[in-house]
Amino acid sequence: MLMIPLPFLPATALLVLAAWLAVRYSEPLRAHWLIAFLCSLALQLVLLGTRYGYGLDHVLAIQHLTGVLIPSLAYLAFKNPPFSVRVAAHILPWAIMWLVVHFATYLVDTVLALITFGYATALVVTELSGNETLSWAPLRYGKILKMGLWATVVTLVLSGVTDTIVAVDFLSTGGTHTKTIAAGASLAGIALLTLGFVYFLRSGRREQSAEGSAEDQALVERLSNELDRNQLFRDPDLTLGRLAKRLSIPARHVSQAVNRTTGLNVSQFVNNRRIREVCNELATSEISVTSAMLEAGFFTKSNFNREFRRVTGQTPSGWRTAERRKKDQIRL
Asked: What is the tens place of the pLDDT at every residue in 257-281?
């Protein structure tokens, strides 16, 4: 009976996700690097399953060369830069690995671990430095992409640790425990991703204090005026990068000013403006909730309902009913 190796299952899930992004979200996201990253992960899992599931050790050389692409593609996936000579420099780790595979095979796992740790560190530093790694993405995707970024960092660190342990195993035992190490790493990765997903589902919105300076408040006022003047909030594909360009201010400064002044992130700040628009329409016209939602710039009903309840504490229909009762009482 033909057995399906465990790595084939997450590989299939990654390919489905990549296809889904390519077909449904290629226009708003334009996440070509992210799709390439998911496909590279899937390919590596297929090679891993082929090697250990069916004993085809000759795929090992391919596995080394494709594996070294994963960290660089992970970095590019969340930075999402246009292709340029500078971006082409990220092929350098692959060239280094090609030389190591052909001339210093015993260093393969060590070099792979160093490259992986290097890119994981670069992602963390870029994100924590306030450079707004995801400013290219529509605001509605910010939360899930940020979760994906940190999940990717964890995955890269786990991969780097695994490569380090494998390198030590080859030096000490000649690779006797490599299969067990790979299986353990796969299970650990699945467990960590599961815990992260559960944490994401259970985590609520964190309240933050608003202590913005006068300069921050002036910037937030400019942002509010810009949203109103050009009705930018109505664009469901609005990005932080686009807002920053309008204000001629770095994206991280806009994000930090909004956070310090209002205690909200930029996505919530824009959604607050959208909710005010919806409330105005619901209170002054007979427009349907769905039409008001779409005209205000929301893309999905689930996100709209969640944000409406966050701002008003009620459902849209419940809020409209309550407002009509208030007006009836005033007339009486």
From this structure: 998 898 888 999 999 999 999 999 9
Residue 5 DSSP class: P
Phi-psi sector, 90: left (phi>0), alpha (psi -120 to 50), beta:
alpha
Query: Alpha helix (H) ranges present in the chain?
Result: 8-24, 26-29, 32-54, 60-67, 69-79, 85-88, 92-103, 108-128, 142-173, 178-202, 214-229, 240-247, 251-262, 266-284, 289-296, 301-312, 316-331
Cα 254 to Cα 132, 259, 273: the distances in Å are: 10, 9, 16
Q: Where a domain ends, among 142, 170, 202?
A: 202
Number of domains in the chain: 2
Residue ending a domain, among 178, 202, 226, is: 202
Q: For residue 288, what are the domain limits?
A: 214-331
Q: Which tens digit of pLDDT belongs to each residue from 189-232?
A: 656 656 665 555 454 444 444 566 888 899 999 999 999 988 99
Is 302 among the domain residues? yes
The SS3 of residue 53 is helix
Instruction: Kindly state the tokens that stand for 205.
Output: 């919105």
Q: What is the pLDDT of residue 131?
A: 62
Residue 222 burial (CB count, 10 A): 15
Amino acid (1-letter code) at residue 41: L
What pLDDT score does 180 carry?
Answer: 76
